[in-house]
Each structure stands twice: as C-alpha cells, then as structure tokens.
Specification:
The complex is a heterodimer.
Chain A lengths: L14 H6 L14 E7 L5 E7 L1 H5 L3 E6 L21 E2 L5 E7 L2 H10 L1 E6 L18 E2 L3 E2 L2 E3 L2 H7 L2 E9 L11 E7 L2 E6 L4 H11 L7 E4 L15 H13 L3 E4 L15 E9 L5 E12 L11 H6 L4 E10 L13 H19 L3 H7 L17 H12 L11 E3 L2 E13 L6 E6 L5 E4 L9 H13 L6 E4 L16 H19 L10 E6 L1 H5 L7 E13 L5 E11 L6 H20 L5 E2 L4 E2 L18 E5 L18 H4 L1 H13 L10 H5 L6
Parallel strand pairs in A: 1-14, 12-13, 16-17, 21-22, 25-28
Antiparallel strand pairs in A: 1-5, 2-4, 2-6, 3-5, 7-8, 9-17, 10-15, 11-12, 11-14, 15-16, 18-19, 19-24, 20-21, 20-23, 24-25, 26-27
Helix pairs in contact in A: 8-16, 11-12, 14-16
Chain B lengths: L4 E3 L4 H9 L4 E4 L5 H7 L6 E4 L8 E3 L5 E4 L4 H6 L1 H6 L1 H8 L4 H6 L2 H5 L51 H7 L3 E6 L2 E6 L22 E7 L8 E6 L10 E10 L2 E10 L6 E2 L1 H7 L6 H12 L11 H18 L1
Parallel strand pairs in B: 1-3, 2-3
Antiparallel strand pairs in B: 4-5, 5-8, 6-7, 6-8, 9-10, 10-11, 11-12
Classes of the chains: A alpha+beta, B alpha+beta.
Chain lengths: ~700, ~325
C-alpha cells in the first residue's frame, strides 16, 4: 500500500455524470427501433386465468403486441417458479405480472395495458400473517442457509430459574424497498444473442438465470449494469422486469425497454416480511444473561420459500449458557418477501436490542453497561473466537461522543416545553463475508492500467473503492488506473449484497494486480499490453471458518410531543467497527444512509395490507412514508480504526448494512425513555402514543 | 396512447364556454394533482383548458380592508404576500404547512381548492370507490381508513378533503368568485363543498364547467391574531393527520369572537361552529377550549383505524387557542 489511496476520502468517480444527468441507467441508453413494454399485474389475489381478451388493447394506436401465457415465448422451468413468467394461466398473488403490452411509445404501452381484459376464476385466499395461523411450519433452513432452529443448554430450565425475566413480543410490518431507479431493463436480441442493460446488483446471476430460462449458452447472454440507482437487496437476484423485457423483445423481434412503475415496486420485487417475534431474556441480579430465546414468525408466498433469518442475529450477539432460537413460516397468497437491507439482522436486532433495553430497566443496569457485561469474545453459536469484535469499543466511544454518561434512566424525566426528551441505544452486528471472485489487470505502454471486474456499483461508491484498492495494489497513483465494472463480459464476480461486495471484489483485484506486477519490471511500462487475471475461489474457499462480524452501536435522542404524540429525532449517532475503511466519503454515506433507513423503519414506514384485495394500499411515496430530509436533523457516523488480518487482503468488513441493524431499537428505546410508553409494534406513530393516558 | 387536447383560452369567458361544450374536459392549473391522477388513470380528460395564463394571478388589497386572491396565484407567492402575512397569518401558515416547496411553486389557489381526496382507494383504479366510479362501493369504509373521515361521512364515502389552504379559508369566511356559463357569482366557501352523502362523486356545489376566478377574504381585523396548526406523521411533506385553523379575538380574557376550522376530519374543510359557540362570550381557558372541541366532535363516528383523530383534534384545538390567547 505504498501510495496510500486506500483510506483517503475521494468523491465518486462517476459523481459528475450522475449529478449532471449524463450517467446512463438501464432504460436510458439510446437504441434504434426501440419499443416499450408495460407490465400488467394480476387483479385477483389467487386464481386461474380463464380468458385474456387483447382485442381492444391491440386496436389501440401504437400497440404492437400483448404477451400472456397463451402466446409468450416458452421458458425453461428454472429453479425459481417466480421467474416462470407468462407461462401458466394462474395468478399466485395480486400484482403478479400476467401480461406485457409492447408499443411504440411508453404512453401507448400504458394505455394498452389498461385495455387488456383478463378474466379470472378467483379462489379463496389468506394474506394476513398471524401468530396462530394454521399454516405455520418449520422451513428446512433460513436465508441463505442457516439452521432453522438452534438450542444450547436448557432454555426452559434456565429461564425458570432466573431472578430477572423479560418476555415480550414485537411486531414489524411489511417494509418496501424503493430505490430511486425501479427495476428496469433494455433488452435486445441479436442473432440469437441476448443483450440486456439491466438494473441489478449482480450481472453474473442475471446472466446465468436468463441463460437457463431462455435455454441459451451463458456466453450468449450479456448483462450490462453500468449504473444502478439503488437496490437495497431488492435487485440482488434476477427479477421480473428483465425476464419480461427479454420475452417481449423476442416476441416482437425489436428492442424493448421496460421499467416497473413505482406502484409495481410494492410487492412483485420482494419486500421485508412482516414479523412477529417473541423474545425471552433471563438474567442474574447483575444483568448477566443466563437464558435467551428468540422465536420468529414470518411469511412467504405460495410459489417460493423465502425464510427470513430473523432470529439468527440473536445466536451470536450476546452470551448466555441457555439459548434457543426458532423460525416458523407460513405460505400466504402474497408476493414473495425478499432481501431488504440487512434481512434478518435488522428486524431481529430490533427485537433483541429492544428486549435488552427492557431487561436493562428490569434489572436496573444502564443499557450500555448491560451490553458490555454480556459481551462475548467467543461466538456463542459456533464456539470459536471472533476474528475481531469491537462492540464494547463502539459502545464506549459512542457513549462518550453522544454524552450518554450520567443519563437518568427514569422515563419521562426530561422535558423541553411541550416536548418530552429521551435517549436510547442499541448494539449492532453484521456478518463479514466474502465470496470467490475473479478480476483482471492490464498494464499499458503509456504507463496506465486497466482493471476489469464484473462488480456492481449500486450507488455505494464501490467503483471508486475498487479503483483506490487497485492503485495501491499496483503501487501507482490512482489517476493512472482505469476501472471497468458492471458488465458480464468482464471477469466473473459476485453480487453487491450481504455487505460483501468490496471484500470479495477487492480480494480478486488485489490478487490480479499482484500477478500483473509479477509480470512487469518494477517501475517500467511494458512495450505492449500485459495482462494478468486472478480467481480467488481456492483462496476464499480455503479460508478457515471463523466467526467474522462487523459491529456498531447507535445512539438516539428523540422528542415526543406530549399532546399530539408526534415523534421527531433530534440526533442519531453511530460508531462502527468494520475493518478498514477504504473511502471515508462513501463509507460515511453508507453508514448514515443505513441509520436513516433504520429511523424510517422505526417511525414511518409501513405497508398497509388490505386483506380483501391482498395488496398494500399505500403503494406510492406519497402514502408510504419514508424518512425525508426534514426528519433527519442531525446524523453522525464514526468508525474505529480496526485492523483484522483474518478477513481478506484489503482488511474490510463491509458497511452497507451495519448502519441500519440496531437503529430502530435505539429509536424505540428512546421513545420509551421519553414517554414511559413501550411501543412494540413498528412503526411508532402518533396514533399509538396519543391515546396513552397521562402522556401530557 | 391516450391523446388529449390542450387549449389555452383567451379569457375567462372563453375558458368557461369551451369547457361547457365538452363533456370530458378539465381545467389545468398547476397540475400537481390532476396530472398524477391522469397518469394513474383515475381522471381521463379529453381536453385540458390551461387557465394558468389568464390574468388571475394577482393579490389585490380591497378598499374595505379585505383581500382578493386571483385563482392562479401560486401557493408560494400567496404565502409570501405581505398583506397575507400581516393580516391573515393563518393563511400563510396553512400554505407553508402544505406540500413541498416545489409543489407550492406550481400549485394555484383555485386548483388547491378543487384538488381531490388522497384516499388510497380513490387513487387506485383496481379498487372500489364511489367517488371515482359511482356505484362501485366504498372499499375504504372497512379497509385501511386511518387517514379518513370521522365526521359527516356516509356509507358511500369516508374520504377527507386534503387541502390545508381550504381549512384556513373556511375559518376566514372566504368567498369564492366563480364564473359559470351564465356569468359570475359568489359562493361562500362554507357552501362550496358538499357532504359525501349518496353522491360522493359530486364534490362541490359548482355547476359543471364553473371556473374559480378568485377568492375574496372579507376584512377581519381579528385575523391578525390567527394561526394554523398542522400535525403530520413526519416532518417532511405529508398530508395532515389533524389540523386546525383558528382566529381568536379576546376582550381581556373573554372570547369576543373566534373562528375555528378543522382539516383531515371530513369530506370538506370543517368549520367548527359548535366549538365557536361554546367559546364565544366565555372566559378563555384551556379547559374551555377542550370542552369546545368535545362539543364539536360529539357527533364524530370514528372508523376502525382513525379514532386517534378525536384526541388529536382536541389537543391541537387546545394548543392553538392557548397559544393565540397568550400571544
């Protein structure tokens, strides 16, 4: 790391293009002869399609075709039934795409979609998650491949014997990913080869899935993903838009652009499952945990099992001799839930960290101190020491920066005029994973270098971070390095997800750069281009399986209007231990973005299901409230200088998700501190506080 | 493609005449609501008559001390107008509590009054709504109705009127100047909106094709002591969970006169006459304000998810009046 680009703040390489509007997103590429697709959602919750009448739509000016199960090109039955689109006369949930209209303009396609008549033979349906739902079952594993249930010691006995116990149930609603750019694709077929410009978090998986569905050799599919306007997990796997666009382009034999509407993001792209979580904690008189149990209930659809790993967070966070976690799932007639920033960890931490706050009160120990007393240096789940665990350091530094020390734990003790003031804290952790990747590096005669990898920058700054890493690995100033990402023609790399993008990609980039340097005379430019490639499959696979996690602590101050119950956040502060930070500028964005999304989860977001219709009625950003700028009055993110040599060559842990993990619990605990009212079902809105007697 | 025609009228008479001759025409003001509804397929006009270039964009101080606000005055401009800020602070505050800066820069005075409910069922053509599709039913009545009415709703419709501006105008006894086929007339704001009743698709008492040309505020010296209080679920742009416009005129501690109107509780801006009656002539106290709110809300019928609007409306009534009394 001779030149030291890593660790220096640098604006995004593509920042200027983005703010001036010249960066092209998936449906912004100019394409000759392009047509426009508009997806038609199912209008029943569950049912058989008995008739599709396309006459009126086809007669509408500009409409070229209406694709549906009766005429769409055939797809192979891939592993995901959800992607087997327009292949069967059935709707498995309201909003599932059952037809596509293709037209010469976007407006014509939209009008055509309105004119498609579909008759259904609708069946009875069940769309509401309930703790006593008769369909609850135990899935074989939970996302991505964790054991469904775990048990150590004897929870029941340990719990029964403890002097202090907390037994509480928390509920979280459906949360909906709303990246600025919707799921969108431009699809083109050229001589049997499929080229898509697609908004996703990993072109490699999209390429593989399309090849499988359309029965093509992998090299006959190219996926270009230059810029992505956000994903948060919802674009972490191949989704409907790209399949529909490719089907439509094949059917009309012309390029097709298809972007989902804002309304269509509420369901078909996946969402964070609602949860019902019972947490039981037992402790001795000093607050040392003796028993922990976390029972999580969530939902999936009838066509795909997605079992969110809600209670997995609890397995490794705090130590106790008696521990149990369970997951139960129910198949409902709803869209399939999917990844949303820290799936599992985020809702799970809301429950566990909230319960820790309740335990702190029950036992009379400061909530920061309670967490410090229950810290574990050996993973309670795997029984092995963590490669590094700086939760306590995050809590201590956060407490110092926030001014936590001397906090009066008495609820409703601070007041500023009509505002009740309260503070709250939560711990956070998120796995530090890496996956195999490949990358290539080329030295050019002019002294510059080209680094190529099929990484994806979903707005995180990944492109810039890899450029910095490459410069240091090559031992040259970053200005001499060009980086190319986001194209399946580039060396294969894993997705941007699970906070493991930078760890995985930088590993391969460093190895490729090292290999290239081995081919070059030090300090001299080659006469012709010289290239080297690296593939970290063996190295990553051969890494000892140790528990690796990033940690953090969020501190929150809220004010609650004593008369109206309005909750506002004065201050949000997080301290994180996430290995080496490559680019402080973009890292800070990730961390404050995560915390802001946690605030949003705690106070604002809620998908309101109408069980009769089987969908969420507040399906736009006017009615599905997210935290806006005026709601974030002060947000601060700090990180510890953490070195962990057992991670990856760059020493990074990933920062995309850790920011959100504990934030909602910290907000909820601060509301309790302010008001004395514990709201255990998110979001915490004024209607849940105003009815509480004596608040004013 | 669903084409529509666009007409820029020469004057008010032309606008009204053109609209009268077209069964599926609509006036276009700032477009902040209509254009959204067109994209959603909720409204499908075949002709848009763009009234924004008509000479209706001035605020005029009247000899009697009142104010005439042209129908195309933008919300931002109206909120910033010195006479509004000085004489009718409730109006300026209601405007600034609404929407976002960008929307206020576009939205017009007349358009604001005629905007449509944000009931999610109205805005979704896949769901039953008598207001959008008469006879189809009201999905909101037994659906997600947290944001909807607690007063004066019918089995056919439980929608609320979304405007903040209209609530302030209701408190100020504003008069709406309209131009209809047979000429101009004045409509008191209190008589502009209908209760939903059996025909929620009929939202106002205006004849089809009527154009709002101005809003007139009668002189009301007491309005210098006035305020608008809006409570919403987040600090950023959101429609009201509850709102109140208030003018308070005290003689010592005795309420000489008071004007009170509520938002987010009914199909129209809700002038709280009963509460005013309760307050007038009495020694002001927060307890009196609470009693007045209770009197107004005595006939409220909360729906499954919106019972909170009663304590909320009561709380903001007490607060806004107490603050005005102390000011």
């Amino acid at each position: 790391m001779s030149t030291g680009a890593v660790g220096r703040a640098h604006p995004r390489l593509e920042g200027r293009e983005k703010v001036t509007g010249t960066a092209r997103y998936a449906v912004e590429y100019p394409v000759d002869g392009v047509t426009y697709g508009w997806a038609v959602p199912a209008a029943v919750v569950r049912g058989r399609i008995t008739r599709v009448d396309t006459d009126e739509a086809l007669a509408s000016p500009g409409v070229l075709a209406v694709l549906h199960h009766g005429n769409a090109p055939r797809l192979a039955q891939g592993p995901e039934r959800e992607l087997w689109l327009l292949q069967e006369p059935a709707a498995h949930y309201r909003g599932q795409f059952v037809a596509v209209v293709v037209a010469t303009s976007l407006e014509a396609a939209r009008e055509g979609a309105r004119l498609v008549r579909i008759d259904y033979d609708a069946g009875p349906h069940s769309t509401v998650l309930a703790a006593d739902h008769p369909g609850l079952y135990k899935p074989e594993h939970v996302n991505p491949s964790y054991p469904t249930d775990t048990a150590e010691g004897d929870f029941d006995a340990g719990y029964a014997a403890a002097p202090v116990r907390v037994d509480v149930t928390y509920r979280t609603p459906a949360y909906h990913n709303n990246p600025m750019e919707p799921h969108a694709t431009t699809a083109q077929w050229h001589d049997g080869r499929l080229v898509v410009h697609d908004s996703n978090q990993g072109p490699v998986a999209v390429q593989a899935t399309l090849a499988e569905l359309f029965e093509l050799p992998q090299e006959s599919v190219r996926v270009i993903t230059e810029h992505v306007g956000g994903g948060f997990g919802s674009k972490g796997y191949t989704k409907a838009a790209v399949v529909l666009a490719a089907l439509a382009a094949r059917h009309v034999d012309r390029p097709v652009k298809l972007a989902l509407t804002r309304q269509q993001l509420f369901g078909p792209i996946g969402y964070r499952t609602p949860t019902i979580q019972r947490v039981r904690l037992a402790a001795d008189a000093h607050g040392r945990l003796t028993a922990i149990c976390h029972d999580a209930i969530s939902q999936t659809s009838t066509i795909r099992e997605f079992a969110e790993q809600t209670a997995v967070y609890t397995r490794s966070m705090y130590a106790a001799p008696h521990r149990r976690t369970t997951h139960r799932l129910v198949r409902l007639d709803v869209p399939t839930p999917f990844w949303m920033r820290a799936p599992g960890e985020c809702p799970g931490a809301y429950a566990l960290e909230s319960a820790m706050d309740e335990l702190a009160i029950a036992v009379g120990v400061d909530p920061v101190e309670l967490r410090i007393r229950n810290d574990a240096q050996v993973d309670p789940d795997q029984g092995e020491p963590f490669t590094s665990r700086n939760l306590v350091a995050c809590l201590r530094e956060g407490a110092q920066r926030f001014g936590w020390t001397g906090r009066d734990p008495t609820p409703r003790a601070r007041r500023d005029g009509r505002w009740l003031i309260g503070t709250g804290v939560a711990g956070s952790s998120y796995p530090a994973r890496a996956r195999p990747s490949s990358a290539a590096a080329t030295a050019r005669p002019d002294g510059t270098f080209l680094v190529r990898i099929d990484a994806t920058d979903i707005g995180t700054g990944a492109r810039t971070a890899l450029w910095q890493v490459a410069a240091d690995a090559l031992g040259v100033p970053p200005e001499r390095v060009e980086i190319r990402i986001g194209d399946s023609d580039l060396p294969v790399a894993p997705l941007a997800g699970g906070s493991m993008g930078t760890a995985s990609w930088s590993w391969a980039v460093i190895r490729a750069c090292e290999a290239l340097r081995g081919k070059l005379r030090e300090g001299a430019s080659p006469d012709t281009e010289v290239s080297a490639e690296a593939d970290t499959t063996d190295e990553v696979g051969g890494q000892p399986t140790r528990p690796r996690y990033a940690y953090g602590a969020q501190f929150v101050e809220v004010r609650v209007d004593a008369d109206t119950g309005e909750v506002r956040v004065n201050r949000l502060l997080g301290v994180f231990a996430a290995g080496r930070v490559v680019n402080p500028t973009t890292a800070r964005s990730q961390l404050i973005g995560g915390m802001t999304m946690g605030l949003s989860m705690a106070l604002h977001e809620e998908g309101l299901l109408d069980e009769r219709y089987g969908d969420w009625v507040n399906h736009d950003l006017a009615t599905y409230h997210i935290t806006g700028c005026a709601d974030v009055e002060a947000v601060e993110a700090y990180w510890l200088d953490e070195r962990d040599d057992e991670l990856n060559p760059a020493g990074v842990k990933g920062i995309g998700e850790i920011g959100i993990v504990g934030t909602a619990a910290a907000v909820a605990s601060a509301v309790h501190h302010a008001t004395g009212v514990r709201i255990r079902d998110l979001p915490i809105r004024l209607d849940k506080l105003i009815g509480v007697s004596g608040l004013a | 493609m669903r084409p529509f025609r666009y007409h820029r009228p020469a004057d008010v008479a032309d606008a009204v005449a053109v609209l009268a001759g077209e069964p599926h025409a609509a006036y276009l003001g700032g477009g902040t609501n209509l254009v959204d509804l067109m994209k959603l397929g909720v409204q499908r006009p075949e002709l848009l008559v763009d009234v924004t270039r008509l000479p209706l964009d001035t605020v005029e101080e009247l000899p009697d001390g009142g104010l005439r606000i042209g129908a195309t005055v933008r919300n931002s401009d109206l909120a910033a107008h010195p006479a509004v800020r000085r004489d009718y602070p409730v109006l300026a505050r209601a405007l600034l509590a609404a929407a976002s800066g960008q929307l206020r820069n576009l939205a017009t005075t007349g358009g604001n009054l005629l905007q449509h409910t944000r009931c999610v069922y109205f805005q979704d053509t896949g769901k039953a709504c008598n207001k959008r599709d008469p006879g189809s039913g009201c999905a909101a009545l037994h659906g997600q109705n947290r944001d909807l009415a607690v007063l004066d709703w019918s089995e056919q419709c439980v929608a609320t009127h979304p405007s903040d501006l209209a609530v302030a105008l209701a408190a100020l006894d504003a008069v709406v100047e309209v131009h209809e086929s047979d000429g101009p007339r004045d409509v008191p704001l209190a008589a502009l909106y209908r209760s939903p009743g059996a025909h929620p698709e009929r939202e106002t008492t205006l004849a089809r094709g009527a154009l709002i040309t101005a809003v007139r505020l009668p002189p009301l010296p007491a309005a210098r002591r006035s305020a608008y209080l809006k409570v919403r679920d987040r600090a950023s742009f959101a429609f009201a969970a509850g709102s109140v416009a208030a003018v308070l005129d005290l003689d010592g501690d005795v309420v000489r006169d008071v004007r009170l109107a509520y938002g987010a509780v009914a199909h129209r801006p809700w002038r709280a006459y009963r509460a005013e009656e309760e307050l007038r002539g009495r020694l002001f106290s927060p307890e009196l304000a609470a009693r007045a709110a209770d009197a107004e809300l005595a006939e409220a019928r909360p729906l499954r998810h919106n019972g909170f609007k009663l304590p909320l409306t009561r709380a903001i009534t007490v607060r806004v009046l107490s603050e005005l009394a102390a000011s």
